[in-house]
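We were asked to recover a plausible sequence for a given structure. The inputs and outputs are reproduced exactly as logged, with field labels preserved.

PROBLEM: sequence recovery
POSITIONS: 251
GIVEN STRUCTURE:
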């Protein structure tokens, strides 16, 4: 057999190097990253469809809090008891909508003007401080994401929100949120909150009790430990006046 000419061999090496150069690897890295992202979205959407009919056993927020409580001395566990939508006080539903998302029954899960205002505030402050979240967006975050504040997490929150609004009706969304929202140190869901603060079921919550619980939602651990806050008392009064005006999804 004849020997391969050196110049031909060099040309073949150059062709292979060109074929498998940095552009080639960047292209495949991007393609693989996109495929992984797509698979993640499909997995999340599958869970969203499941939650349309079946109650979640845990959430991302519950798991994070359970890990935190397990490291305490002595260790603690979270408290959460699922309660059907029809067994939750109408006052509680009105209070949470009044506090968190007055346009809940009308919008499609995202209030773009609120997000725009939040983006401007974040840009001016130089950090991610405000989110412009609706109840559906908060549900998406609680179920699947973390409390980290970043634009990447916010973008994923928007995607999951659109999934939830596509699959579920407003009553189911509110039922899920009321049952998984954090209401204190290791306290999740309206039933556990009602028992924790008032020693009664979620069905028997009064208007004022419901308004107080809704008022502490932005910082539940803080006000679990500081229940005599004047600010929360003022906010409770505001919510009591607002509650009769909001619409609630029917049972």
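RECOVERED SEQUENCE:
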């Amino acid at each position: 057999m004849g020997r391969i000419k050196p110049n031909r061999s060099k040309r073949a090496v150059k062709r292979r190097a060109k074929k498998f150069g940095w552009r080639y690897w960047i292209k495949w890295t991007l393609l693989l990253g996109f495929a992984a992202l797509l698979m993640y979205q499909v997995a999340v959407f599958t869970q969203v469809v499941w939650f349309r009919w079946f109650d979640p056993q845990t959430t991302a927020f519950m798991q994070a809090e359970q890990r935190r409580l397990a490291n305490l001395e002595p260790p603690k566990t979270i408290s959460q008891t699922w309660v059907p939508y029809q067994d939750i006080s109408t006052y509680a539903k009105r209070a949470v909508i009044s506090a968190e998302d007055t346009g809940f029954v009308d919008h499609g899960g995202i209030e773009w003007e609120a997000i725009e205002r939040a983006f401007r505030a974040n840009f001016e402050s130089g950090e991610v401080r405000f989110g412009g979240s609706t109840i559906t967006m908060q549900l998406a975050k609680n179920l699947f994401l973390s409390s980290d504040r970043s634009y990447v997490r916010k973008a994923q929150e928007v995607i999951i929100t659109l999934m939830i609004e596509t699959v579920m009706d407003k009553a189911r969304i509110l039922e899920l949120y009321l049952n998984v929202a954090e209401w204190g140190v290791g306290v999740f869901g309206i039933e556990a909150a009602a028992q924790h603060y008032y020693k009664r079921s979620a069905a028997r919550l009064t208007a004022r009790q419901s308004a107080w619980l809704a008022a502490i939602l932005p910082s539940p651990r803080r006000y679990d430990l500081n229940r005599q806050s004047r600010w929360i008392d003022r906010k409770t009064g505001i919510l009591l006046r607002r509650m009769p005006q909001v619409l609630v999804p029917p049972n």
